[in-house]
Specification:
117 residues; four-stranded mixed sheet; 60s Ribosomal Protein L30, Chain: A; alpha+beta; 2 domains; 15% strand
């Protein structure tokens, strides 16, 4: 079975770039670092928890849906997945949207009833 980077990084906090990966690694925040086949960062190659992939930085860019080439991805350790602030905001926006839709329906129903009278 081939390695699926998209599945591995889904819903994970990550950092991009060799410098940031090394910085986070020194802090002990990194679970694993993935580097592209065309990455030649001597600081990373051969280190524990570093996996060199057989895809290019342009392919990694597409997988990560970034507007720039991605040679290095550092995945953060997950002691226990916490709900991200963005997820809370998205849920609140979705709830608000549903409420607005329901109010609009009630108003249009009321307007139709008034027209009949």
């Amino acid at each position: 079975m081939a390695f699926d980077l998209a599945k591995e990084i889904k819903d994970r906090k990550m950092f991009f770039g060799a410098k940031e990966a090394l910085k986070q690694m020194k802090k002990g925040n990194v679970e694993v670092i993935y580097i592209s086949a065309d990455c030649h960062s001597a600081d990373l190659i051969g280190k524990e928890d570093v996996r060199q992939l057989d895809i290019t930085s342009m392919e990694m860019k597409e997988i990560c849906k970034k507007p720039f080439g991605v040679s290095v991805i550092a995945l953060m350790k997950e002691p226990g997945r916490k709900i991200k602030k963005e997820e809370i905001e998205e849920a609140a926006e979705a709830e608000e949207s549903v409420e607005k839709g329901a109010k609009k329906k009630r108003r249009s129903k009321k307007a139709k009833e008034e027209e009949k009278e």
